[in-house]
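Quarterly update from the structural biology core.
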Amino acid sequence: MNERKIYPLKIFALLCLLGCFFFACSSGAEFSPKDEGGVLIYYKTGFDKKRGDFRPSRGASLSFTEDAIYGRALEALCKKKWAGPALKIHISGSKALKIAFMAKGINFKRATLNFFDQKAHDNTTPYGYRFLPDGEWTPVLYYVDLFHYNSKNSGYIRAETEFNELRFWGLEPANEKVILRLDNFVIYRGEDCSPPEKIKSLKAISTPEGIILSWAPPKDNVFTMVYVISRATEKGSFKKIAETYRPLFKDRKVHQGVTYRYRILACDFQNNLGPWSEVFSIVHKFPTPRSEFHETVYERDRKQYAAHLREVHRRGKGKVNKGLVVLFGDSLTGPTLYPRLVAGALGIYRVKAYGFAGQTTGFGRRKVREILAKERPEFLFVMFGTNNVRGKLRTQETYEKWVDDLIAIVKEAENEGVVGALATIPPRGFKDPLSLPEALFNKLLVSRAREAQIPIAYIFEAIQNAGPRQEFIWKDGVHWTAKGMELAAWTWRQVMRQIEFALRDKP
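Predicted structure, tokenized:
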């Protein structure tokens, strides 16, 4: 063969190989881990300067929006089923790997995502997709080593993985738009124990609508998740008044001519509290803004137990498994779906469940030490009593004994530095609209729990107010449907938000 014909072929082949190499290197983001404050950061973006290497997938269109936590956020309009933003990645190993971000869904009800493991040739998926209340910014933390393979619905993924794509996906759009917004997105490995830095740029202005506070997000190795606002009058002591996800807050509960002092701290996705900012003082110059505030029963309860919970939580520091919630109860706690829904509702926690069919409050009192010793959770959420009451009216003394058991369970947890909460038991059957035996038991439970400064999840009340009981209670009149479990999960979310509010505070 003529040598002159060989060289062009060789050059062409070499150029093709180089082109493939450069294409491979340029497709997807760089995922070399960087050690930041005790964790390895693989990928981090606030979307303020660029799209963050996300691309549209399956009929999604991506753009920026100023409806953001700060600056800009990524918006995905999902025009077809399975559409969403996708990210090419190169991350080996699932151990202690986490995905954290802020999300807002519009008809995008769950933070649904797939994480493809090319080593297993299978997508991996969270057991409990995090709930996205419609139109609200919501913090999300996923523990990747607790994912499962899509080909299985049990067990966890392998430690030896090769992740090469993360993809969010939405449901089939109906008449409404399906939109997912993302901000402060990070993939990291390890337990984050480093709090955000001190906020250094707090400002405030007095307006007819109230005092408006603003500040720049402080530095953090992962990302700030939420801000805590504390306020005092000129000579009074500081008191926490609010939380906000954005570095902006409007205080409407102010009066003309009064001097207010403010300080703010930042909290990250693993509930590490940063230091307080310097105090900013301002005199409100305008008449009191007109506003309507409706305090919920959960907020009223929190005022009674907040200081007590902070003391319990302080005792557990360094002894409990931070971020672990254990559900403890009878067969209502037993269904596989239940802890997954609770994890989805709580948003940033690991959730385990111990449900014992047919068991009563007395069993729970005897069993709790074993559960606490095994798991050492940060939180213990308890619901026993259905197998005690059994739809029958009992004497006051009998109810008192059962509630004694429940109070004792939580006090046992508190002795170990574990924050406990109790739930009212669901209504029973369909003939008695009041479910009177359960209602009387729950009334006593609520009264005693408040006296003992224990948070309460009002599951009975939530079901009674939600509509036809048959939608939430199974045909046996005792156990709940999937819809009932989801309602209970939302109820646990309500009480957890108040527990968090109490714990995200310090002198």
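The longest strand covers residues 179-189.
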